[in-house]
């Protein structure tokens, strides 16, 4: 399936650049998400010059050679790593093509007008490839894939302390070091599944000669590796399988590394003991040739961890862009990659939440609320995650080569937000486009006591209940599709409040406002309801591409396009502000009904399911 790449050029910004007497200073951003990839160009004044976006294929397997005949693939979600790579290349190529048509050439020697590129990515999505051969062992397992729920249970059993209950173990067995519960969400459980089920990978990990060539990575690692590598002379194997590039940089940043279950939040290093707790129980290690092949090769299989903004991450060798005469020119040739941030951390950065207590909520496929806690790691006792927000590293022309202290955050991750609306469109077929939901929701005065709990693959924060399943409750014969649509939108706001309240309890900080971003912020009904149910103002910024903009800001800081965080903050501006208008009695009644509905979603999966 081919997807069209949509490119938007800000003509007024372009005209201003073309009138300059000297070359412009631009910063690029690759924003690789769950369902699409984007490429942005930002000017030194913080204006958005261009955006390009293209969707790519989603894979939901119904069968697998890696399972026995009676095992189900329900809840599986995969990406082809080369679809991800091709979508990024397409966005870059189409951007430079459209700008060239309008008089701005950014290929070959003019690539230097782009001073740096930042990468932001869907987090936790995990893949593995062979550095020597370029062979990818298996599709990328997406962050919301539920196949590793049983893996998480196995890890808990293997590390279970008989002095405490399973529920306590779930919360605490790795949380003290990683800030994370053991759950299917995180990359480490996907690494374990790949080791347990992919025979070719198992064979290479057991081989004394091949094990050092195995590379595990999240999407940022894969993109960095491909951008900085060289195309092999043979781009396909004998059986027609595409091969990855050769000699790429193998790094990740602290924000992405903090989502594996392998990294200590304090040391910011991979810890062999944590890796052993997650993957050490795999049967793969029982058949190794010798002691050296009976454990996970931490030193070679995991990427180097670096600061989120740093001028030494890597250099792009160029992305081929076709010309009208059938030849190719290189875009982004020799442009440095100077920032990597997980998507939610990039959104926090893009919302300029640089001070402790500042928070944002991103509405995408899922919903993600994050609050800056400064240099303090605040352990959560209310179902949230303690994670790294970002770390600033080396800057061009700076005499100080030591990275700054990491900035930490509390985060609540919700699996289904925008994807709930996709479900209404693609499965129930009661809407044809998400744009219809606002008018439908506003066509009825309320949801009339009906609630939709979108626990399609369990509930993430703050519940962490893999046994939960989606439900609609409170239905009567008077309810219509408008009520279903309204309750689906309201479910995002309710879930955001669950995380919001947990954040206040964990941090003892009363949040005065909520900065929001993501596609759903275009829905005025949802934003007003969000303000009403939180009882605080909800603020949408001028820059709606907050995630990509945040990665661009971090990249530009590393090369001196912007001098410091204060200068970056001045470029942030309010677009729209929603203030709460719901009375306390209605808010309390609605909230009580939601909590009742959530309880109905629990315990749908039994042990024998």
Overview of the molecule:
The protein has 609 residues and is α+β, with helices and mostly antiparallel strands. The protein is built from 19 helices and 24 strands. The strands form seven sheets. The protein has a seven-stranded mixed sheet with strand order 1-4-3-2-6-15-12, with helices on both faces. It has a seven-stranded mixed sheet with strand order 18-19-17-16-22-23-24. Strands 5-8 form a two-stranded antiparallel sheet. The longest helix is centred in the last third of the chain and has 27 residues, at 481-507. The protein is globular. The relative contact order is 0.11.
Helix and strand arrangement:
Elements: E1 6-9, H1 11-18, E2 26-32, E3 36-43, E4 48-55, E5 78-79, H2 81-101, E6 114-121, E7 126-130, E8 140-141, H3 149-158, H4 166-172, H5 175-178, H6 187-197, H7 199-206, E9 214-218, H8 219-228, E10 251-253, H9 254-257, H10 272-279, H11 298-301, E11 304-306, E12 309-315, E13 319-322, E14 328-331, E15 336-342, H12 343-350, E16 359-363, E17 367-374, E18 385-390, E19 407-414, H13 418-428, H14 437-442, E20 451-453, E21 471-473, H15 481-507, E22 514-517, H16 524-534, E23 538-541, H17 546-558, H18 565-569, E24 574-578, H19 584-600
Parallel strand pairs: 2-6, 6-15, 10-11, 16-22, 22-23
Antiparallel strand pairs: 1-4, 2-3, 3-4, 5-8, 7-9, 12-15, 13-14, 16-17, 17-19, 18-19, 20-21, 23-24
Helix pairs in contact: 3-6, 12-17, 13-15, 15-16
């Amino acid at each position: 399936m081919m997807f069209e790449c949509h490119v938007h050029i800000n003509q007024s910004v372009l005209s201003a650049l073309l009138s300059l007497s000297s070359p412009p200073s631009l910063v690029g951003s690759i924003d690789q998400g769950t369902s699409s990839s984007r490429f942005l160009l930002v000017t030194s004044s913080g204006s958005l010059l261009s955006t390009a976006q293209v969707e790519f294929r989603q894979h939901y397997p119904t069968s697998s050679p890696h399972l026995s005949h009676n095992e189900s693939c329900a809840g599986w979600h995969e990406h082809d790593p080369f679809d991800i790579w091709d979508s990024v290349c397409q966005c870059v190529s189409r951007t430079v093509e459209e700008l060239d048509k309008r008089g701005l050439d950014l290929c070959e020697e003019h690539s230097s007008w782009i001073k740096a590129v930042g990468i932001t990515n869907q987090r936790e999505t995990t893949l593995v490839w062979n550095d020597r051969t370029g062979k990818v062992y298996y599709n990328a397992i997406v962050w919301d894939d539920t196949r590793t729920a049983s893996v998480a249970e196995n890890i808990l059993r293997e590390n279970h302390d008989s002095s405490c209950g399973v529920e306590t173990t779930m919360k605490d067995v790795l949380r003290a070091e990683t800030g994370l519960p053991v759950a299917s969400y995180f990359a480490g459980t996907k690494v374990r599944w790949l080791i347990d089920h992919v025979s070719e990978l198992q064979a290479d990990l057991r081989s004394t000669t091949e094990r050092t060539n195995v590379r595990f990575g999240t999407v940022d690692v894969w993109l960095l590796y491909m951008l900085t590598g060289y195309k092999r002379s043979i781009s396909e194997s004998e059986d027609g399988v595409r091969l990855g590039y050769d000699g790429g940089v193998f790094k990740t940043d602290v924000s992405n590394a903090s989502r594996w279950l392998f990294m200590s939040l304090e040391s910011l290093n991979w810890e062999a003991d944590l890796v052993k707790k997650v993957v050490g129980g795999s049967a793969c290690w029982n058949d190794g040739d010798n002691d050296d092949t009976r454990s996970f090769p931490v030193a070679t299989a995991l990427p180097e961890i670096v600061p989120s903004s740093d001028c030494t991450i890597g250099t792009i060798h160029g992305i081929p862009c076709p010309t009208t005469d059938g030849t190719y020119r290189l875009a982004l040739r020799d442009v440095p990659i100077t920032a990597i941030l997980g998507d939610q951390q990039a959104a926090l950065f893009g919302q300029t939440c640089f001070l402790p207590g500042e928070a944002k909520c991103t509405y995408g496929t899922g919903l993600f609320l994050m609050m800056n806690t400064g240099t303090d790691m605040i352990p959560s006792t209310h179902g949230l995650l303690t994670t790294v927000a970002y770390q600033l590293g080396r800057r061009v022309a700076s005499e100080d080569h030591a990275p700054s202290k990491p900035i930490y955050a509390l985060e609540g991750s919700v699996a289904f937000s925008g994807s709930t609306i996709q479900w209404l469109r693609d499965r129930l077929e009661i809407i044809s486009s998400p744009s219809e939901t606002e008018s439908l929701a506003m066509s009825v005065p309320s949801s009339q006591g009906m609630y939709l709990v979108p626990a399609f693959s369990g509930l993430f924060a703050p519940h962490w209940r893999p046994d939960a399943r989606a439900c609609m409750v409170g239905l009567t014969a008077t309810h219509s599709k408008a009520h279903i649509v309204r309750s689906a939108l309201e479910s995002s706001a309710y879930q955001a409040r669950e995380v919001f309240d947990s954040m206040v309890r964990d941090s003892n900080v009363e949040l005065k406002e909520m900065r929001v971003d993501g596609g759903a912020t275009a829905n005025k009904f949802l934003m007003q309801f969000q303000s009403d149910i939180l009882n605080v103002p909800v603020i949408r910024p001028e820059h709606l591409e907050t995630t990509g903009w945040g990665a661009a800001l971090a990249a530009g800081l590393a090369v001196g396009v912007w001098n410091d965080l204060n200068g970056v903050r001045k470029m942030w501006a309010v677009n729209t502000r929603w203030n709460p208008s719901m009375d306390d009695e209605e808010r309390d009644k609605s909230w009580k009904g939601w909590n009742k509905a959530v309880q109905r979603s629990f315990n749908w999966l039994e042990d024998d399911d």
